[in-house]
Design brief:
48% of the residues lie in helices and 14% in strands. The chain is of the alpha+beta class and 405 residues long. It has 3 domains: 100 residues, Butyryl-Coa Dehydrogenase, subunit A, domain 1 (Orthogonal Bundle); 114 residues, Butyryl-CoA Dehydrogenase, subunit A, domain 2 (Beta Barrel); 135 residues, Butyryl-CoA Dehydrogenase, subunit A, domain 3, CATH 1.20.140.10.
Length: 405
Amino acid sequence: MDWNDTPEQARFRKEVHEFIGSRLPDYYRQRAVRRAQQQGLENDWQQDWVHGSPEAQAAAREWAAALAEKGWAAPHWPSEYGGGGLTTFEQFIMSWEFARSEAPVVGGAGTSLIGPTLLVHGTPEQKQRFLGPTLRGEYLWAQGYSEPGAGSDLASLQTRAVRDGDEYVINGQKLWTSTAHKSNWLFGLFRTDPDAPKHRGITFMMLDMRTPGVSVRPIISMGWEHATNETFYEDVRVPASQVVGEVNRGWYVGMTLLDFERSSISGAVQQRMMLEELAEHLRENRSPNRRELVRHEIADRYVETEVVFNLSLRIASMQASGMIPNYEASMGKMYSTEVLQRIARASMKAFGLYANLWAANEPLAPLGARHTQTAVHSVVQTIAGGSSEIQRNIIATRGLGLPRG
């Protein structure tokens, strides 16, 4: 195993680094200043675009335009559709460098989920209508999958879509629609045949969130953040032309997740940066007792971030060889999210009672309460995207060959 870049990879890494250095807007470069002013840790491009200050909105648009010039808004899309057409390792390196520079990723679910799905299952008319505006940031997407009774068992979803002429009429509810409050389009799964087996009778549709009958209600996290939403659909009419793939075969369309950056290298980089920030804070604040309390724990967490990095590298290596990671991706997801929780707990231990200060503008909150907020929001990381229990089942059955049951 060679952990060094090839000459070609080194040149590409240099290109990405120089691009960030020359094109990243000042708004995103001033993160260190905002940290010092206890203004939190903003790095949500879509939030900046929709709900940000005029300065944030201008920076979000400037950065999106710069990436679009290179095709890097969607590095994994084919170049003929405006993407970068990058290799797996080029995507890996790009994500690595973006995470190191804290440069925001643009596009969200639009470029990572609905775009690749349309590339495979969309009609020529759908590709023409939706791909360009998605790349330009004109269409900002939310994902409508989970429901109150259909989370891990997504195929139990019950939100109905009934055909009425050239339209479908949707009634029901979705839950954990995380970007609904900053999106203008939604793609989701809706039940069109209630009598079919639960994995059948589901259809994949796209809908304009400004359509009458769509309502969005915020869910405030225990860290006081508007992190996600519940969405309601009351006689929402959707043109049949916005069905993607076959009617009643939407489950298979919805499982088309062609975001090739599944290695989570950005998570590995961010975890390492969290540890380095914590260690620097303890050194600068001359807290020998607190340092001694967590010294060995920080060392253990540092070693674990190396494991996260190598699991990520393994996934990228498999993809680069034309293999499809299966249980390997589950290993990476499970381990990375659990390491994040352990890092956050180490920070809370180091801060002691000051860890109870959650607000970014609280003068006595260590590091602008970022680590406290991470601790609070890391709770869901081992649930969202497939719980650790589900990942362990995949590892056991597909990786170790153990029987089901």
